[in-house]
Amino acid sequence: MKSKNKKLDTLDTIIGATTSLGGTIHSEGSMRIEGKVKGEIQCAGDLTVGAGGLVEADVHARNIIIAGTIAGEVIATGKIHIESKGRLKGNVKMESFVIDEGGIFEGNSNMKQEEVQEKKEQNKIETVAN
Asked: Where are the annotated segments for Disordered (predicted)?
């Protein structure tokens, strides 16, 4: 997805395979997780969880690509894509949802356009304010 805001398309945070973090993470760009994160993730751009990544957190991001594991409430203003080795356990809200063959989803999904649109507007306002 092309964005007019270059910050959102820039991968500015990488959490490596040997790194574990706990707490709340805020990112104005996109991020990739190969290590372990517990807590909460607020990502204005795209979030990618690599094959070795483990996220036990509530996640809010634009688009979310899962090749590893996420457990928690997940909200995407765009798309959630679970790749063939990916696992997602928890309730999700998104605009579109893709699960590749072999990918695992356990939870409830909700594609309510109003809620997703509200989050998009909130992210747009926050991005403009920064």
From this structure: 108-130
